[in-house]
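RESIDUES AND SHAPES:
===
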Amino acid sequence: MNQGEEEFVEVYRAKDATQAHLMVGALEDAGIEAVVDDELVQSALPIGWATAPRIRVAAADAERAREILEKMDKEEAREEE
């Protein structure tokens, strides 16, 4: 890792690329830089959790990002009921 480069850590595994990008948008709206990994793997090899799109953020933002994503998960579950 180069000096000045932050370590990015996984904070969430999305159901699909659409959900991943919605969640990344919410994180970015909150001022948290986020990236989606493995979205192409899932479309090529849709075999479940191992290939689910991963959302990663800087380690320093991980706790806040998880709180935001957990809130979104709860809201989504409520809408599905």
